[in-house]
Amino acid sequence: MKTFVRLLTGGAMLLSAQAAAAQELTVGYFLEWPMPFLAAKADGAYDKALGMPVKWVSFETGTAMSAAMASGDVQLSVSQGVPPFVVAASAGQALQVLDVAVSYSENDNCVVAAALEIEKESAAELAGKKVAVPIGTAAHYGFLRQMDHFGVDVSSLTVVDMAPTDGAAALAQGEVDFACGWGGGLSRMKEHGNILLTGAEKEELGILVFDVTSGPADFVVENEELVAKFLAVTAAANAEWLADKSPEMLEKIAKESGMSVEATEASISTFTFPSIEEQLSEKWLGGNAQTFMKGVADVFVEAGSIETALDSYEGSVNSGPLAAAQ
Length: 326
Description:
Elements: H1 2-10, H2 17-20, E1 25-30, H3 37-43, H4 45-50, E2 54-59, H5 62-71, E3 76-81, H6 82-90, E4 95-103, E5 108-113, E6 130-133, H7 138-150, E7 158-161, H8 164-172, E8 178-182, H9 183-189, E9 193-195, H10 199-204, E10 210-216, H11 217-222, H12 224-244, H13 247-257, H14 261-268, H15 276-279, H16 288-303, H17 320-325
Parallel strand pairs: 1-2, 1-3, 6-7, 6-8
Antiparallel strand pairs: 3-10, 4-10, 5-8, 5-9
Helix pairs in contact: 1-12, 3-12, 3-13, 6-16, 8-9, 13-14
């Protein structure tokens, strides 16, 4: 990964004395969610760049990431969904969005059991059905927006809180009529059913699907240079992947994801990784992300999923470390 190394060297920054004093950094991530940063993880690039060991802990959902950051067990979370971030922030947890990790409208969806033979034209037939949804996640938000679009009263549904992998198993066994999720779980769901809307169709409805790197506000403020260094490694890995998409890098990502090379290639081909410049633009962290988070929060309040929303989510985004990483 010569380009990767050159990018890191060119963007090298001295760690602050406070950050250097830290002995270890613990970062949350998802298995079966293939992203370029995993190749950097495999190469030990984060350890080298930060000058300290990075401990990686896998999670099933973004809500679990929020809980781990609240307890202090995890300092940063890579690819946390915006909805679980919003749920935590709305409840008063002091978290900050640090970058746009990935955009993936095609890789987060709801799948209806094939036996029901329900398509988007007949989606009203979902009323009264049983659905598996990971509550408080991007999939949950997408589910609520899709049901609203199709005119399906959510109160008529039996909603079961399940992680995507569990939802896929429940769909396969006929325990639920449809299920929502992402990644490997979504891939397995599609083996037993069909989606109602494509990623492009969802985007036309304003249903954006993207994840962020997040962290507790106090940790970020106290370790801003350390965080900038971390984000620089991630950005370099993204640039390396976009430039080459080498088989070597794909194999590393696959291994770290716990997926086959074929499944990894199929998933990552549906992902978009914005550059730092793009992330800092109005489309993302320059304003639109904050507006989108407010929209997500308001939808959750209306659905009764959270009690209240913040007046604004401007303070929930800290683009300082990302700008420094640039």
